[in-house]
Amino acid sequence: MKFRVAMVGNPNVGKTAILNALTGGNFQVGNFPGTTVEKKEGRTIINGIEVEFVDLPGIYSLKAYSADEEVAKKFLFENNYNLILNVVDASNIERNLYLTLQLCSINIPMVLVLNMVDEAKKRGIEVNSKKLESILGIPVIETIATKGIGIDELKKAIFKAKNCKICAKTVEESVKLSEEIVKKVVKKKKVLTYSDELDEVFTDPVLGVLIFISAMWMLFKFTYQVADPLVNAIELLIDFIVKFTGKSSVLTSLIGGGIVKGVGSVIVFVPNIAFLFMGLAFMELSGYMARAVFLMDRFMSKLKLTGRAAIPMIMGFGCNVPAIMATRSIEDWKVRMATILSIPFISCSARLPIYVLIAGTFFSNPGEIILLMYLLSLVFSMLTAYLLRSVVFKGESDFIMELPPYRIPSLRDVFVNTWLGVKHFLEKAGTIILMMSIVLWFITNYPNKTDSYAFMLGNLVKPIFSPMGWNGNVVVAIITGLIAKEVVVETLSITAPNIHTILTPAQAFAFMIFILLYMPCVATLGVIRSETNSWKWVLFSALFSFSIAYLVSLTSLELIKALRVFL
Fold it and tell me: In this structure, what CATH number is given to the domain that contains residue 162?
């Protein structure tokens, strides 16, 4: 006998913490078939029976608005499960019961989990669970999932699930019933909590923004600078393996220069990704992330995005790969897609060595030129997001957010969230990047190194770049830059050591703009594929960014000539 349990509830009610406590962290993260909507599935043995839990995306009602809600609704009405585990935030029971009463109408046995009862008591809220159980006619279990309290009782109640006595078939009926039930089962005392006091600071329009900027700066430093020693160690190991395998044969060259170097381009990001997910998990579980999102929503809404899009876009200045993965926190599919496809225009740290080389070689004010590149990256990223939301991913985005209570995250939950993020990246993006790296190895090594297909391709596509006046060596650097943007510097040092003799300052400036805007690197394209679950958006990102880069760099070159800037 096997039980399948659908876990349902509003966002931020602690469903994942409940799943952790029930399964001991034995669950996997994946996507629902044919979608980019994430699900968690966990298994455990209770009373000798295997119980499978499916943690559905957080929803507020069965009236679907977003892709997440549509997927959850479809799953619930397919009835491919035995019972519903409805997780409710005890400190915000009125809003939560709105969904509970709709779930009752599905006519499936249900257990109601009254989670975070400790937080409710701190806010002066007491819920009479026995009376609520009597009214609904289903088991009601009080839990504090982060501390494992009530989990044993919950396991026993799973096999005692019942159909509800009452239900609501309309929105109006659900609202009315919620209000009536709350009056009967909830007692409230006016208590000023530390959460209220912290919110006055963290959501302040001036001080809150300064704190948010500081928090993001610390996360940025944590993600990249603290991870640097590990990144450098992995790079040294990869370089050693590449040199050790050598090029004595086609096989060793493929292993070293293709597979190891290609997969290494993924592995080298693991410390950054692990530290990013660790930091994001801490911010999310502590309750601060919701305040930061609330604070940024006003500005991001002007771009037709939501506050959750701000954090991945900021992270993009370090690396586009973990930044795109950070978009998983965006519930609305349309907003998430627009954010994913706009992040490649954010100037990642890998582009900086190119800026330093070109600006330092051609301009007397390299600092100002480099700053201009970063400002342009922001402009094009934001314009792209706005354009995509206006044309491709049209529609209003409902942004409803509960401000969860502040809490000290458990190290276990932080670790599990971090590991799942890293594992997902390695499983999904790694396989795609491996394939693409082998292709790039082949075209850069055959028929021979000095006259490879990459050089042939460079000469073949050179006419496309003739309006910019770039020769074949520069074009080859653009092609190899698809492996990783910093490879452009390595390629130019080999093919064009005297770059100041083959480019004018105007052409060099246009080249910098092109590097800023053109196609994402292999790792970024790989993670776009894994996060969107579609090659269509990989192709769109590549072609769209290339077109923008070409038009803008050519236009800038013509403007420089017309205005005689840099001449």
Answer: 3.40.50.300
